[in-house]
Amino acid sequence: MNEQEHEKVKLNILKKIKRTKADISYLNELTQPIAPENSLGRLTRMDAINNKSVNEATLRQAKSKLGQLEYALQRIEQKDKTFGQCSNCQDTIPLPRILLMPESDKCVKCAK
User: What is the pLDDT of residues 83-98, one digit of tens each?
Assistant: First the structure.
């Protein structure tokens, strides 16, 4: 990876970290407890509880992705020679995949 690609990936990771932090903030609001005094009907209350559990799962995934993105940023800032190599087969991961999923350390073939 040349210096220009390196900088492009770094900026992309920073942008994704910012977006993921915003998503986490929003999801934290959606996963607040549902107060029992709210005048919701029985079915509406069940829907609200179901939506809350879906949002909690999404929140866990977003927090995991944030950790992976921060690790990828750390690796690229330290100019880790293995960044951009598949952790499974050691082949070079194509730049479009790195830009799409910088948190992934596997090529498309190995990620299946």
Answer: 999 999 999 999 999 9
- Residue 6: C-alpha distances to residues 12, 30, 33, 77 (Å): 10, 36, 43, 9
* CA atoms of 18 and 16, how far apart (whole Å): 5
Cβ contacts of residue 104 below 8 Å, gap of 6+? 68, 93, 97, 111
pTM here? 0.82
Three-state DSSP string of 54-69 = HHHHHHHHHHHHHHHH
Tens-digit pLDDT profile for residues 26-68: 999 989 887 766 566 666 777 888 888 999 999 999 999 999 9
Contact indicator for 1, 95 with CB cutoff of 8 Å:
yes
Instruction: Find the helix or strand (DSSP H, E) in which 97 lies.
Output: helix 95-100
Distance CA 79, CA 35 (A): 49
